Amino acid sequence: MNGIVASDYTDLAHAEEPRLSPDGDRVAFVRRTPDDDDSYTATAFVVPVGGDEPTQFTARDGVDSQPRWHPDGSRLAFVSTRGEGDRQQLWVVPTDGGEARRLTSVVGGIGSLEWSPDGSRLCFTQRVTAADREAERDLAVHPDYDPDEPDPRVIDRPIYRADTEYFDGRRSHVYVLDLEAALSGGPSPSDGDEGEGGDAITRLTDGDRDYIAPTWGDDETVYYASKVGEEPDDSLRYELFAHDHETDDREAFTETSGWLGPDSLEATAADRVAFEYTPEERASMRQTEIRIHDRSDGTETTPTAPLDRTIGHRCSFTWAPEGDDLYFTTPDEGSRVLWSVPGDAEAEPRRIYGEGATVEDFHVGRDAVALVQSEWDHPGDVFVTTRGGNEPHRLSRVNRDYLAERAVRQPEEVWFESEDGTEIQGWVLTPPEFDADASPGETYPLLVEIHGGPHAHWTTAGTMWHEFQTLAARGYVVFWCNPRGSTGYGEDHATAIERDWGEVTLTDVLAGVDAVREREYVDDDEIFVTGGSFGGFMTAWAVGNTDRFTAAVSQRGVYDLTGFYGSTDAFHLLEGDFDTTPWEEPEFLWEQSPVAHVPDVDTPTLLMHSDRDYRTPANTAELFYLGLKKHGVDTRLVRYPREGHELSRSGEPAHVVDRIERIARWFDGYSDHREAPPALERDRDGGLSASSGAADDAPAATDD
């Protein structure tokens, strides 16, 4: 059996977006795979619920997403970039055979796609400028249209960029497409003349506001949300609207607060609207609930209130088809699990599925639930279970051939006490060849991983599966945990880091290190640490506040809280977690920043950052890096062009591989278990896939 290596990432397939057919017999899903060093291919597949292998349903051309069954099962709508460069368009394909048909040629792409209950229309969003709306390029545009980049870029909004893009005047608006009109007059795969296809699309919203999360109630009603306040970018409050498509009338019927995303509203034909709610005061520290507004009588209930878990961090919710029960996921003690609750809140939420697994996404059908879940022994596949969570059945094995030839080690769950007696959950992953009985006295270096967030959680699977298994296969004992601040253990656990990200979290992490280093096979003279985002903050905080670590790699971190506040789209995180701003307590925020402790750093520290990371912009990494250089610390800064904050999860395949290889190479250079000089003494790219064509994946590296 081969060990898992960083370059294996290009061989891994990812299952995403499961959707049950209306008759419950089939599940559509997206299979995403690296296409080359720079891009991915994503294709829709369909698998029978009763068994048999998944079959490819759309052409392997571009990136497909958002597969959505027509309510009668006769068609599958999906979004694709095929033939359009990076611009997403709406397509439909008959489910009984036939060619896919492109229905849109719009300038802003397609998001939040959903069929009306009767299947006559689809609603969606796109991000467009006022000029686009005036010229009706949001209704139809020639595929060759290429907007000019602003020069200069004039900024008026407090939040003017996110993900990897500047907004440049683009706002999210809600649209409805009439299916029959689009089929009779819309663009076909070979045409795309200026203006053709636009008559089938109606814009429901307009103006200098963002409208998000559209969802159908009955056949004529679309619900959506928009921020309110004197400065919406600085607001956490949203109005919820009901829009009558026939009359074009809309009504604002309630408000909510928090961080709403593209799937934060779900409605029934009986006028019940479920939506996310997070208390506005100190919102970043609070748990997200689901509220239900009944438009027939104006009442609101919070069916998730009895549950001390948050509907946040990659979680989702939806109504069952009949509109009586609500299904949702939450983090829960090292798993991401599925719950159900009656919409009238007459019973408490019931956990029905997912213990020991990570439910990445799910869809509720008439009699079953389709899921994509990952576990310790695979990075993700399609499963189906009953509505009650019984009789789970695996429908896909998208990495069967790959896993058949790889040694995958099962992590060991550990619980330990922190300094104040708090019970913390963690995991230990040993190298595949580890056998205490066969090799008594053999030791391995310990590698500590710290998660981001800070209000997130880790499991034994999910997006870190490949990285953890790679580092273990390289000869490290890998340890990770969910310290205070993490979700999945109740609100008190998550809020324990209020105004103190560094010391509280480090106390918990070091308590875990102490518990693991007592094991005979752990070399307690060699302990390494890494993490990304908040984990990058904590890695930098650790090397400035303890000398316990032999070397460190800090990724996409926050190093100066004031600089972060002024450059991120997530400044409310600082206001909520620290209850202050740079103008109120500048000295306090400085002391809470890793850069303040640079004079105390001796640990060799590699910094990694993305050039287009607009969540944790690179300016604070540059400050920390310069500080380390000025104080004579072994350091290096690696910058990834074109990448954003999601590099480790969805970056260009070559960059994903390079990142893991550089982490391992940095640690190898400071380990007595390796025959490798420090990375600073080697060629900058020596032994890495990007430069040599073959990764330096052997446990014992050699000098270049």
TrEMBL record:
GO terms for biological process: proteolysis. Transmembrane segments: none annotated. InterPro entries: 6-blade_b-propeller_TolB-like (IPR011042), AB_hydrolase_fold (IPR029058), Peptidase_S9_cat (IPR001375), WD40 (IPR011659). Gene3D superfamilies: alpha/beta hydrolase (3.40.50.1820), TolB, C-terminal domain (2.120.10.30). Residues 687-704 have a biased composition (Low complexity). Keywords: Hydrolase, Protease, Serine protease. GO terms for molecular function: serine-type endopeptidase activity. Residues 1-37, 50-70, 184-204, 673-704 are annotated as: Disordered. Residues 11-34, 61-70, 673-686 have a biased composition (Basic and acidic residues). It comes from the Archaea. Pfam families: PD40, Peptidase_S9. Coiled coil: none annotated. Residues 466-671 form the Peptidase S9 prolyl oligopeptidase catalytic domain. Belongs to the peptidase S9C family. This is Peptidase S9 prolyl oligopeptidase active site domain protein. It comes from Halopiger xanaduensis (strain DSM 18323 / JCM 14033 / SH-6). The lineage of its organism: Archaea, Methanobacteriati, Methanobacteriota, Stenosarchaea group, Halobacteria.
